[in-house]
């Protein structure tokens, strides 16, 4: 028997204990061990029942994702589960921690299920670009009905034990040790002469409007195919005998296994976990982190403060005046009541945070005790330097001084203090208590334990933290600025903002770039353009002023009711603002450009080429350490579709040589903009991919 499964006897019960840390993934050795364990139990004199239980953190976290893409080895999971279900012995699952994907499917192959109250179950395969592939789409609807099963498997959400019991997935919820609970429960079933109860032999559930469900789930997935495919697998199980339904499910699962979406999603899964894994921080202890200061209580500062409070940190927020402080407190209270409504905190915690844990002050001296302070004041170097001068004066020795700047030079900010080793950039994304991304900007002199503390803060706040080097815009905004420029060029040449938004939303972005600009506020881009113009624009660069004119007319996007779109009928009912196209046409005429048509395909290709090229520069220059750091930045901060894995994963899948050939064509039109990243050319010359760089970094 495999050493992943321990076999023991407890009276008439054989217990198969899974030992595959950290999360009992159903690797080949585990599957083989379960098979052999069933064989042994069935041959073991006097055994009447088998109990399957996990050791450590989970029952099973599902199929071993590391085996995906390799040739599957027997016993395959669906066959193993059928074998468990068909056993003449009574088979019971005792669940704790998570039972996900194949893990829940094993439990559904058992005849009875017990769980501890903290257990969570789910079929999250859609998050990996798949559908449940070991009977989940066939067995779960037989227990819960079709609608509940589809809701769980198309959202991939984790269901708590109590709810799962109400749905019919779990027979009993009982507190205690999972193994002992399982033994007691199995014994009670044996004592009551409970029959074997294979789910596959239960009645098929009632049909629903399959096509309607398929279409609505497909639309919700913004181009992601696997959730809608769950509908087809469930439908097959309702319309055909169990074995045929199972075969249909397997076929869809195996087909999805071959898709780019599956590859993109699995890349995202592992990159999300690898992103905080930096060799330079391996043995570095973070500094103490209990009390943080926040300077500025606008939307950003209040969001950062909220995020810190929700992660259990004490917060002192500094504003310039008592009135501004009061407004900041109200913003934070508003954010916290949202968290209360979503069940993230209790009423008691909410009240305690506002009365005891948050302090709003107007005097820098109140920050003398903080472990870390983040400034979120106006984005101008002179203002930042004044703030850092004050912080340098009042903060205790060893306190970390962080800037939330999104563009400015953190080295220059650090140099304005007497302790540059304690200075770091912590770039949050608005709303900071919601958005998952945190760029940790490491300046030349930042100490390693300050970087480690940045990552520790990100972890406590449940953020995806990405290490970035210093440059204009760091990783995310620097790349954003380039692909936005590519979009502006397409507008000058004939595309409309609406065609561009539509093409990119069809590609999978949550919002197109012009809808995003309206949401963020057009005044932000206007301020950046003014700053860059003041610094001096390269005369070879294409420029335009229609967007400035839009701002001059007072159209800043959603907050003023008009930007690229008109929001007078509400934020969702966006319609093109009729003032925009005349401004664009005027600009084209001024520059002597005859507009041409753009297909959606060309829009996506150019936009993505610009994004990938700048990303390659960012990696080549060491601003991002690995391609996956760029991918996670775009995924968690910029609405890049998860199922495409990130821009550099997308580029690998699309094929680097073809993209390079495109860029060389674009370069002929505009050599200034299309300066190809040396790293990109090197990878193509060596026949390598961006993922090869990720692998080399992990080795
Ligand atoms: N296979 C292989 N490794 C896995 C894994 C899996 N299913 N699930 C987690 N891991 C690994 C992680 O990569 C991580 O490894 P490192 O420590 O080397 O980075 C380690 O286990 C711990 O994971 P987390 O850091 O994510 O720990 P957590 O406590 O935050 O979360 C979890 C645990 C809820 C199980 C989470 O890891 C998770 O959601 N895992 C994926 C579950 C899943 O999608 N299962 C379905 C698989 S597909 C399937 O089963 C198909 C089928 O029907 C046949």
TrEMBL record:
Pfam families from the UniProt entry: 3HCDH (PF00725), 3HCDH_N (PF02737), ECH_1 (PF00378)
Keyword Isomerase belongs to the record: yes
Location, primary (coarse class): other
Domain of life: Bacteria
Gene3D superfamilies: 1.10.1040.50, 2-enoyl-CoA Hydratase, Chain A, domain 1, NAD(P)-binding Rossmann-like Domain
Pathway: Lipid metabolism; fatty acid beta-oxidation
Domain 3-hydroxyacyl-CoA dehydrogenase C-terminal: 473-567, 603-688
Annotated localization: Peroxisome
Residue stretches making up the 3-hydroxyacyl-CoA dehydrogenase NAD binding domain: 291-468
Alphabetical UniProt keywords: Fatty acid metabolism, Isomerase, Lipid degradation, Lipid metabolism, Lyase, Multifunctional enzyme, NAD, Oxidoreductase, Peroxisome
UniProt key word Amino-acid biosynthesis: no
Reactions this protein catalyses: a (3S)-3-hydroxyacyl-CoA + NAD(+) = a 3-oxoacyl-CoA + NADH + H(+)
Family of the protein in this entry: In the N-terminal section; belongs to the enoyl-CoA hydratase/isomerase family. Belongs to the enoyl-CoA hydratase/isomerase family.
Protein name: 3-hydroxyacyl-CoA dehydrogenase NAD-binding domain-containing protein
Source species taxonomy: Bacteria, Pseudomonadati, Pseudomonadota, Alphaproteobacteria, Rhodobacterales
